[in-house]
Amino acid sequence: MLSKHPSQETTTVLKRCLAAFSVTLCAAAAWGAPARIAAPAPDADDALIALGKGIPGFGGMFRDAEGATHVYMLDPTTRGAAVDKALGELARPTDETAGAPAILHRADFTFERLVAWKRALGPVLSIPGVLSLDADEAHNRVTIGIARDLATADRERLEAALDAGGVPRGAVRLQEGEPFAALPLVVDKRAVPSVGIQDKVRPVPGGVQVAFGCTTTTCFICTNGFTAQLGKTLGFVINSHCTGERGTVDFMRYSQSLPSGGSVATEIADPPLFACDVGRRCRFSDAAFVKFDKKSFGSLAHIARPDGNDPELGSLVMTPGTARFVVGGAGPSPLTGDVVHKIGRTTGWTYGEVVATCVQVNVGDTDLTYGCQTAVAAGAAGGDSGSPVFTWNGGNTALLQGILWGGGVLGAQNVFVFSSLGQIQQELGTLKIK
Fold first, then answer.
1. Neighbours of 48 (CB within 10 A)
2. Contacts of 259 (CB under 8 A, 6+ apart)
3. How high is the pLDDT of residue 21?
4. Could you say which DSSP state residue 321 is in?
């Protein structure tokens, strides 16, 4: 049985994590999950820095709507065989851009420097009205998301924090938006569910409706993320906010799709929140692990496949009812501009471009911050919390990226936000996904 409270050993490691949160990801420590990782681990920013090591003055990279690769360099005229080879390796050309060289832009700052500034500015996340913090590889800036109605006093606090942080003002980009919020749903449990991913499906794949926390008349609704094996235990990954309490193992029971369909699983792992920055609590993923009551209930390496997709509102129906994506493994960490997909019980199969990577996100109306999340310009709505997010290049194979937990607005774009598979495993431990 897993403890609801961290041990003294856990508390000690969490204190170390506090100091490391704005520097790199670290395991939150042992709360009963099979894997214990005490050392810090690189995050997606570190991975991008490593990717650009062969390019002098590398300032970041992104893809445009046509799939072309754009690379920032302090001096784009710096060339040579080694540099050209490194640029070619970064391009990862799509079919549309096969053979096209990377498009170069003059950078004002190296990406490594932007990441260092981002981490140094971590405390600004405690200022009311600050939404997010990102080393923005698409703009060669540190981008800070702020509420459109940011109070004058809070703006002054932000300006003072930027001055005190020693970060050049020209390196900071302020982006107005709206708070990020979790996306569970409350429904009348007496209602008859629709066909497709809202209906009873056995064995249970990723991307279908689950119910929990029911009263005599209502249930909370989320989406099953993906089936996985944690140690020898078969279950599925779902959002921590789709449990009784974030960061606490309360052994919540889950039905699929409603109580009338029968209980199928019990929560057994939900890493604790920990203190970070100034007056906030943090996690590296919005994820918990739920154990199937019977192994026969689960369907490893399968995600429900609706009939069609759309950027905002896709199909909920599967034809035939056994239509599935097969999880072929973990997908490569997406870049800004890459396209990813999700399956959710409310908006179905939607897809869109990644608009921010490894961004620290505040959850609206809470004191919670999630580190190194990915934002995608695509449709999501209440009940889509937990949706599996994946890369898809046609056919039946999906490469898993993580699970959706919320939505918000960045600039003028409605986005959903997801925790990556790497972040999830950093907290839950190694997961077998196929």
1. 22
2. 189, 211, 214, 219
3. 38
4. T
85 compared with 49, residue with greater pLDDT: 49
Which of 375, 323, 315 is CA-nearest to residue 347?
315
Beta strands per DSSP E along 80-184: 103-106, 130-136, 141-147, 172-182
CA gyration radius, the chain: 21
User: Which tokens sit at 116?
Assistant: 């260092």
Q: Is 420 helix (H, G, I), strand (E, B) or coil?
A: strand
399-420 confidence digits (pLDDT tens): 999 999 999 999 889 999 999 9
d(CA 64, CA 94): 11
pLDDT at position 91: 72
Residue type, 197: I
DSSP 197: G
For residue 95, count other CB atoms closer than 10 A to its CB.
Answer: 7
According to the model, what pLDDT value does residue 80 have?
81
Distance CA 186, CA 118 (A): 37
Q: Which domains does the chain have, with CATH numbers?
A: 44-106 (no CATH), 111-177 (3.30.300.50), 185-432 (2.40.10.10)
**Within 10 A of 60 (CB to CB), how many other CB atoms are there?**
31
433 alpha carbon, distance to own chain's centre: 17
Distance from chain centroid for Cα 5? 25
- Enumerate residues 6+ apart whose C-beta is below 8 A from 26: 13, 16, 17, 20, 37, 39, 40, 41, 426
> ∠ CA(349), CA(410), CA(131), 5° rounding?
115
Q: Average pLDDT, stretch 110-136?
A: 96
Per-residue confidence (pLDDT) for residue 422, from 0 to 100: 95
DSSP character string of 240-295: GGGSSSTTS----EEESSSGGG-EEEEEEE-PPPEEETTTEEEES---EEEEESSG
* Alpha-carbon gap, residue 407 to 381, rounded angstroms: 8
Cβ-contact 432, 229 below 8 angstroms: yes
Q: What is the pLDDT of residue 81?
A: 83
